[in-house]
Design goal:
Elements: E1 3-7, H1 31-44, E2 47-51, H2 59-68, E3 72-77, E4 87-92, E5 109-114, H3 122-130, E6 135-140, H4 148-172, E7 178-179, H5 180-186, E8 202-205, E9 211-212, H6 215-219, H7 246-249, H8 260-267, H9 275-297, H10 316-320, H11 322-325, H12 345-350, E10 384-387, H13 390-413, H14 418-423, H15 426-452, E11 462-464, E12 470-473
Parallel strand pairs: 1-2, 1-8, 2-3, 3-4, 4-5, 5-6, 6-7
Antiparallel strand pairs: 8-9, 10-12, 11-12
Bound molecules: iron/sulfur cluster.
């Protein structure tokens, strides 16, 4: 883990994809818990980002931080910004006048959240904001609800923003000016996509001192993944990574944040995004590609490599029709990019806010009526009732991964049009594979239960901790 996000006030407006909670009093982190947070940050050598509510970071909390000398950034509503360079003001496109309240030349970065209703106004609001900060991070608040009309409005908004950004680059000659959805893909430089990586690179401390993968999961009331007094433990943590996201693996829209919160809330799979995210990311990628061509003609960004042209709008098309795309080169190794401008690289790395995940829901119908079903939401609430060997664990983990991959493909099919679906040679195979993997999967549990005489209790399900090989019944 590299950094800690601290939700200092449970009423703090969102700075990211998760929804903003209703403001209410008495939801702040206590100074005792905040002191423990700071101890944890020092002990684990982490960087610190704080998410503040409407009244910003209070004097006591600031004094606590200053006493430790920990560098930090602070996301806060624009109305609470006081001009501190460590502040990252968060604005909402539904309140464009708020841009005028921001002091110019003090903040390096700002976040601008927008919904479907504000897509048309986005270019103007962003342009006004870009005059005050170097980097604007634009975040859609409701992308899971976008329809094709919103997607085409977004395409038009991207074209407008691209024209405006080009004009800004040409008039200022300053390549430090950034708009995440256009410039991030253009100027990737050091090896990795600009992803959130919640649960791996960072965790969130909720106001009560518990850990959550990202503020969104914690605010929704999902189970904590640890506390400041114990080590964090994230069930099936590997699923949060790109390596376990079959669709993302063939994609090179590296400006996409791969928000595991949105993934889980829309497709029920942390490693599969909704079709809207993929479509939007590919529109951004294409707009970045065209913009870079134009800028290079003028002599700007001379060292950046051109972005290759592609002929699909959703990487799922590659997964389902690999032959059609086999002529294309695989995605190049992704370069890395810092998130915020006019800061040191170390500061920017610290700011790599990225949040986290949860597991798919349990299968609704057990294949065996006699035996408890495997449960895919492992939470360590019980004592282990059994333990399997590492080899046995490896077998079920392989089946688990296979089953998840197939489920992801299934859940993603809904995003395809009928023609693509019908022409896909994979569809029938997927159904057959899913059937056999599900049987094999349940067969493993049935066989293990028989071999080891595992206990059975009505209404309870088995689950396994892949790290310890322990089996639980709960
Ligand atoms: S998972 Fe990451 S990108 Fe998604 S809402 Fe949480 S912090 Fe933001």
């Amino acid at each position: 883990m590299k950094s800690l996000l601290v939700l200092h006030d449970a009423s703090a407006p969102s700075f990211c994809y998760y929804g903003s909670p209703e403001p209410k009093p008495g939801t702040k982190m206590s100074s005792e818990i905040f002191a423990k947070v700071l101890e944890y940050v020092v002990r684990e050598k982490l960087s610190l980002s704080i998410i503040c509510g409407l009244d910003g970071l209070d004097h006591d909390a600031k004094s606590q931080i200053e006493a430790t000398d920990i560098p930090y950034f602070c996301y806060l509503p624009v109305g609470a910004a006081k001009g501190d360079p460590m502040e990252i003001p968060v604005l909402d496109a539904s309140d464009p006048a708020a841009v005028d309240t921001l002091t110019g030349d003090t903040h390096a970065s700002a976040v601008l959240r927008f919904s479907r209703q504000e897509v048309n106004e986005l270019p103007e609001i962003w342009e006004a904001l870009s005059r005050k900060v170097y980097r604007v991070v634009v975040v859609p608040t409701d992308i899971g609800k976008w329809d094709m009309d919103t997607i085409s409005l977004y395409e038009k908004a991207l074209a407008k923003m691209s024209d405006k950004l080009k004009a800004i680059y040409l008039s200022t000659g300053d390549p430090d000016i950034e708009l995440n959805i256009l410039s991030d893909r253009m100027v990737l430089v050091d090896g990795s996509p600009v992803e959130c990586r919640a649960g791996h690179d960072h965790l969130t401390v909720m106001p009560d001192g518990t850990f959550s993968i990202c503020p969104g999961f914690g605010l929704d009331g999902d189970d904590a993944v640890g506390t400041l007094d114990s080590s964090p433990s994230i069930p099936n943590k590997h699923l949060l990574l790109r390596d376990y996201a079959p669709i993302c693996l063939v994609c090179d829209a590296y400006q996409c944040r791969r928000c595991v919160y949105i993934n889980q809330r829309t497709t029920l799979e942390v490693n599969t995004g909704p079709w809207q995210i993929c479509r939007a990311a590919h529109l951004e990628r294409e707009a970045s590609r065209l913009l870079l061509i134009e800028l290079k003609k003028t002599g700007l960004f001379p060292r950046q490599e051109l972005i290759r042209e592609i002929n699909y709008t959703d990487p799922l098309e590659i997964v389902l029709n690999p032959k059609k795309f086999q002529e294309q080169e695989p995605p190049p190794v992704a370069p890395k990019k810092t998130l915020f401008r006019k800061m040191t690289k170390a500061d920017a790395d610290r700011l790599k806010k990225r949040q986290h995940v949860s597991e798919p829901p349990p299968v609704s119908k057990p294949a065996s009526e006699k035996m408890p079903m495997y449960k895919e939401l492992p939470m360590a609430t019980n004592k282990a009732v059994a333990k399997v060997t590492p080899e046995e664990r490896d077998n079920i983990r392989k089946l688990h991964m296979k089953k998840n991959g197939l489920s992801e493909l299934f859940s993603s099919l809904a995003r395809l049009d009928a023609d693509t679906l019908e022409s896909s040679p994979l569809y029938d195979k997927l159904i057959a594979d899913m059937g056999s993997v599900s049987l094999e999967f349940q067969g493993w549990w049935d066989q293990m239960a028989k071999n080891y005489s595992w206990p059975i209790e009505a209404g309870k399900k088995w689950r396994i901790d892949f790290d310890t090989c322990e089996v639980f019944l709960d």
